[in-house]
């Protein structure tokens, strides 16, 4: 059976005229419609078959009665029965359109005395029925949408508008511009800005020299620079920031978004197709929508920027970061903290069952991190050890001190004396070198890139000093794609 979809056939006037009767009056086929339809043709569709003749009389009666043919069950049932028994093979849409053209007088017909016009009429009924079903489905969706809370309605409508806007915008961009087929999403642009606005090696070198020369004498500065250049081979690379120019079409199509630069001291504008970055506000600048802001907040910090964010919170906010992430993000960061020379991994997931071996491994990780001045990551994963009641207790104070969860708590000499062993001391001292920081990583317990309320309560009850810590949400590329898909679907 041939199924016709009204949205896949542009210019199908029949669908519009018969689906929306209010365009012609108060009823689907009222007196105004009857003045248009050529009844002479309809009444002369006699056929040798009694079934076709019966169908013609019924159709004529329904039209004169002013009913909505697309929802007339008796007419539709008889039409489908005739079509299913017919040996002719035609396209329903084309035959229905031809029949309608003759009915409204746009085409003349020799009024043949055979069943083909009746077959056309049956095809017309099929098309009308399918159109009515489409209208009913759309109406059901509108009723369901109307029954939802206002916030849910706004989210769904906004997501639909965003998808429609992006699709229409992409269709308008000339291929000669060689732009991407799809615009970059705001979160990807924000990460790009952070990376693109990082100082080059030459800029970092110049800044370091300038900072050292503020309180020094000119002679000291010259001597230090000469020593660094000639003996330590630390001359700047001469690397300059690349400037490829701004695509002039970026001011015509697409949007510009505003984000903070890497240093966080000023805003810059980035284009959502070309990723050009400028300092002045362009005319086609667009503020982030509420959904886009919510997406950025939900995702948090990109996984590659996480070490920088940890350092910022620990050194500037004076707090221990608690990192939340998906399974893939947490496992990737676990590998990073294990191999990175500036980091040390403390695998607390082994403490699901407290035992002396796991506690000793944790102690060694603490000592190693303090001696090297690295970031100590307390990795919990999907396990939430009870640090407060079962681990950081007097029984294990020389293995896992409570001070580890206090900002700057490990700077206490007495605390370090208890966890350092004699062969680990340096000159009888328990060193803690600059760069030592502490962070905690915990895996989301849901698939929606968020922590459940029950899990949050559990975390607060098992981690000492949790109220003084600062939470970070992290994500990877797969998480971003998943969140974008959820936003597009209105979830």
TrEMBL record:
Residues 1-28 form the signal peptide. It comes from the Eukaryota. Keywords: Signal. This is Uncharacterized protein. It comes from Durusdinium trenchii.
């Amino acid at each position: 059976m041939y199924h016709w979809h009204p949205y896949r056939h542009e210019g199908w006037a029949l669908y519009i005229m018969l689906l929306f009767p209010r365009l012609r009056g108060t009823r689907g086929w009222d007196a105004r419609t009857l003045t248009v339809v050529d009844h002479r043709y309809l009444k002369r569709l006699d056929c040798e078959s009694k079934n076709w003749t019966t169908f013609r009389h019924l159709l004529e009666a329904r039209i004169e009665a002013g009913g909505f043919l697309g929802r007339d069950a008796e007419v539709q049932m008889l039409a489908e029965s005739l079509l299913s028994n017919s040996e002719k093979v035609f396209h329903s849409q084309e035959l229905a359109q031809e029949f309608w053209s003759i009915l409204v007088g746009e085409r003349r017909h020799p009024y043949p005395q055979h069943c083909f016009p009746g077959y056309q009429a049956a095809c017309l009924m099929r098309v009308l029925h399918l159109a009515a079903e489409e209208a009913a489905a759309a109406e059901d969706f509108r009723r369901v949408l109307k029954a939802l809370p206002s916030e849910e309605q706004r989210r769904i409508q906004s997501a639909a508008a965003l998808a429609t806007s992006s699709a229409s915008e992409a269709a308008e961009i000339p291929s000669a511009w060689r732009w991407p087929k799809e615009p970059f999403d705001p979160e990807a642009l924000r990460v790009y800005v952070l990376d693109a606005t990082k100082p080059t090696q030459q800029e970092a070198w110049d800044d370091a020299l300038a900072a050292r020369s503020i309180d020094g004498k000119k002679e000291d500065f010259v001597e230090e620079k000469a020593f660094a250049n000639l003996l330590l081979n630390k001359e700047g690379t001469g690397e300059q920031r690349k400037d490829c120019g701004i695509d002039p079409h970026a001011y015509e199509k697409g949007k510009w978004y505003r984000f903070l630069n890497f240093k966080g001291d000023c805003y810059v504008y980035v284009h959502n197709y070309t990723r050009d970055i400028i300092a002045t506000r362009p005319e086609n600048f667009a503020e982030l929508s509420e959904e886009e802001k919510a997406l950025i907040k939900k995702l948090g910090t990109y996984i590659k920027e996480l070490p920088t964010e940890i350092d910022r919170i620990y050194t500037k906010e004076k707090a221990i970061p608690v990192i939340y992430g998906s399974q893939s993000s947490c496992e990737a960061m676990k590998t990073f903290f294990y191999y990175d020379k500036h980091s040390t991994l403390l695998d607390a997931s082994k403490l699901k069952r407290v035992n002396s071996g796991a506690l000793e491994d944790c102690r060694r990780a603490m000592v190693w991190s303090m001696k090297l001045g690295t970031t100590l990551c307390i990795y919990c994963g999907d396990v939430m050890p009870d640090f407060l009641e079962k681990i950081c207790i007097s029984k294990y104070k020389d293995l896992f001190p409570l001070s580890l969860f206090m900002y700057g708590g490990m700077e206490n000499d007495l605390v370090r004396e208890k966890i350092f062993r004699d062969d680990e001391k340096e000159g009888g001292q328990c060193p803690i070198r600059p760069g030592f920081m502490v962070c905690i990583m915990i895996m989301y317990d849901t698939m929606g890139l968020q922590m459940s309320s029950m899990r949050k309560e559990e975390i607060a009850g098992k981690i000492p000093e949790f109220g003084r810590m600062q939470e970070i949400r992290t994500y990877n590329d797969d998480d971003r794609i998943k969140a974008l898909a959820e936003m597009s679907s209105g979830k």
